[in-house]
Amino acid sequence: MNIPTVGDLKEKNIIINDLFCSVYDISNENTLIIAGIVKKYSGLNIDLTKKPLIISRLSRRLRLLKCNNFDDYIKYISMVDNTHEKEQMAIALTTNTTAFFREAHHFDALRSLCKRRVSHDVATDGAFRIWCAAASSGEEAYSAVFSVVDLFKNKHQKNLRVLATDINPYVLEKARNGTYLSEYKYNIPKNLFNEFCVENKYINQFSIDEKIRSKIFFEKMNLIQKWPIEKKMDAIFCRNIFIYFDKETKENVLRRMLSHLHIGGEIYFGHSEHIRSPERYGLEACGVTAYRKVAN
């Protein structure tokens, strides 16, 4: 029996790593083709420096689809109406990193905004609406509700609405379930955890109360395609989204988002995402990577 050497495998466009039996190599040309497909589908901006990322993230898709190499995969994904695989590719190439009360200053800002708008009944339809545009597994959306839900007691309670969207339907399903490992509870203020969460120490998990979960509508959404949004928002969480986009896509998505934000509403970005010349967008800075809409 002849056992192939690493050199033999490389000639067949396959390399070996320490963890998996087969991880595929990719040419510069195919990298750019993949980049073009995923950008057209999701806006994700990838260049040649991301070759290792493409190999590590998409090798599982190639194995699952029994593709011998990236040439085969590109032929498969380029088939007419192969939207499902384009979605799978975009999911594989994005990172879902989140936590309860991550960048806590934004939730303090949200609470202050909510106090002002609810006390003055500013919202045009009587509801205070929040949009988490990259909700991932739900921690951000639940943190938002935790931060303001006590302001909606009695007659106002029903008027808190949160839309939580993500391109990845698998993390959204986890978010809907509202169940997390117990180790994550330490990011939630103790008083809120005790009031709104139930822990099962035998399985090392806790669940979020239905009173909180009922305030949130989780929906799959691609930010460069059609948006299922009819009402304007009072607050938008747009955190760690623009790091994936090029300048043109950022501009287009930002302006679309702001068209769905009330005057006086606020939009929050990730710690590395600053808006230069916010006045060009009718915004003014109101905190750390936080901006208030002051004009259309």
From TrEMBL:
Gene3D superfamilies, per the entry: Chemotaxis receptor methyltransferase CheR, N-terminal domain, Vaccinia Virus protein VP39
Pfam families: CheR (PF01739), CheR_N (PF03705)
Record's keyword annotation contains Ribosomal protein: no
Catalysed reactions listed for this entry: L-glutamyl-[protein] + S-adenosyl-L-methionine = [protein]-L-glutamate 5-O-methyl ester + S-adenosyl-L-homocysteine
Superkingdom of source: Bacteria
InterPro entries: Bact_Chemotaxis_MeTrfase (IPR050903), Chemotaxis_MeTrfase_CheR (IPR026024), CheR_C (IPR022642), CheR_MeTrfase (IPR000780), CheR_N (IPR022641), CheR_N_sf (IPR036804), SAM-dependent_MTases_sf (IPR029063)
SMART domains assigned: MeTrc
Keywords from the named record: Methyltransferase, S-adenosyl-L-methionine, Transferase
Boundaries of every CheR-type methyltransferase domain copy: 19-296
GO biological process, one term: methylation
Chain sites annotated for binding S-adenosyl-L-methionine: N96, T98, R102, E140, D166, N222, L223, R239, N240
Molecular functions (GO terms): protein-glutamate O-methyltransferase activity
Enzyme Commission number(s) of this protein: 2.1.1.80
Functional description taken from the UniProt entry: Methylation of the membrane-bound methyl-accepting chemotaxis proteins (MCP) to form gamma-glutamyl methyl ester residues in MCP.
Name under which the protein is recorded: Chemotaxis protein methyltransferase
